[in-house]
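tokens incoming
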């Protein structure tokens, strides 16, 4: 398996799970929405489980290709201003999740179509949870 593809998968799987965890904690502790919390947790676990189902790549193989020392953009980030609120954090992270699930979907088209379709389903599940939370919390949704 090509190193570059494995690094893309590793980065986006991490991005998906990290972003989902942020959204999950906001749903749990800020919104106190048990259903949304459970749905986000299910998606997070689903992203991991799909990777585990792969017959062609494994977590140890992904980790062996990880090279954070040479990642020149790892610390490029925005600096939040005083106007940032928890809803902005949620929206940034849910957008990050959708984007990274799309990358996983596309990369797995090369490796395993069934897993690719699984990531597509998780992406659409994420759209549904986002809509529910935006509506419930009265967040004005905007793509970043």
């Amino acid at each position: 398996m090509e190193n570059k593809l494995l690094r893309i998968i590793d980065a986006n799987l991490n991005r998906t799970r990290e972003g989902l965890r942020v959204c999950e904690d906001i749903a749990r502790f800020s919104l106190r929405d048990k259903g949304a919390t459970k749905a986000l947790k299910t998606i997070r676990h689903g992203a991991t489980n799909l990777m585990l189902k792969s017959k062609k790549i494994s977590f140890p193989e992904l980790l062996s290709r990880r090279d954070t020392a040479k990642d020149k953009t790892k610390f490029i980030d925005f600096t939040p201003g005083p106007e940032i609120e928890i809803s902005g954090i949620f929206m940034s992270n849910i957008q990050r999740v959708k984007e990274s699930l799309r990358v996983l979907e596309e990369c797995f088209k090369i490796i395993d179509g069934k897993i690719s379709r699984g990531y597509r389903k998780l992406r659409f599940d994420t759209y549904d949870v986002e809509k529910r939370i935006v509506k419930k919390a009265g967040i004005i949704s905007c793509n970043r």
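note: The helical segments are 3-30, 34-53, 59-65, 86-111, 113-137.
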